[in-house]
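Protein details
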Amino acid sequence: MGGRFDFAIVGAGMAGASLAAGLAGQGRVLLLEAEDRPGYHATGRSAAFWTESYGGPLVLPLTAASGPFLKQHGLLRPRGALTLARADEAAALDRFAGEFAGLGVRIERLEFAALACRIPGLRGDWQHGVLEPDCCDIDVAALHQLYLAQARQGGAELQCRARLAQARREGSCWQLALEDGRRFSADVLVNAAGAWADPVAELAGARPLGVQPYRRTIAQLAMGAPVPPELPLVLGFDGSFYFRPEGDRLWLSPHDETPNPPCDAAPEEIDVATAIARLEDVAQWPVRRVEHKWAGLRSFAPDRLPIYGFDPKVPGLFWCAGQGGFGIQTAPAAADLAVGLLLGRTGGAVDPAPYLPDRFH
């Protein structure tokens, strides 16, 4: 088995699938997935939401430009996001609110009485808050399947259990060898390998860019009292927690960022216990039991911005990496931007300059 392709994409998570969908019909596309099925790692473990402040001001253009696609395909469910702050964080919270309001994000500043109406049992330490009413839950599985279907319909070829072992540039073509001996060739090699982005770059003879995976833990809790169905996504301004309802359950994270090598991430008991302790510091809600817990890897570049573009030193190697926790909510615009760069198009909706890999050289 083998073949010659215009584009070989390493990784069939959200990044790779969205790129394959955008490139299908523009050339012969090969999508290589190391696991038994696409989306096994970060994509399949995401509790994703679309909220414009997440990732910071330089990620906002990608988030905002992705909203229309997600809405058009019915992939968003209104939620709202409420960021809580203590009294000594009020000035910093005001700066946060002012910055994003100035960028066009709908922001409502709230004090304790209004916060307590939205979060029953809220403890008195949390005196200040910012509401982002436009935050929505994302149907991650449906978005991923949509991209895989579009890629397939456009003629892209998906190969699972296809872990890349060698990548050698010969003239204007990549010679690719998989661990099981299968071989392919491609004009362009796209590195959309998530937590494995730097190892894949090294296989291709490129300098790693410092893409670091971090473990993030989530627990599903059965609560001793009903979870308000209208509860927004609730986040700590200090980055120590977030939680939101999932049916009659609560999804809770300690917002952990533990450096981790690329792997099949698993939750640590201490992280789950930390999350519950932090929840108890926010609201007087009894936790009945932990029903389910999981962990995923979120991968960041050193400057916390995504990386899209051709490697400046290795011809034919394209980076699509470092999407951190905002890779789902930015996927439509990021894929459009990356496809434009791959095909040499200019004038897209988002300026690629902040995301080019040249910034690390």
Observations:
- The helical segments are 14-23, 60-72, 90-102, 112-118, 140-153, 197-203, 269-282, 331-343.
- Residues 140-153 form the longest helix (14 residues).
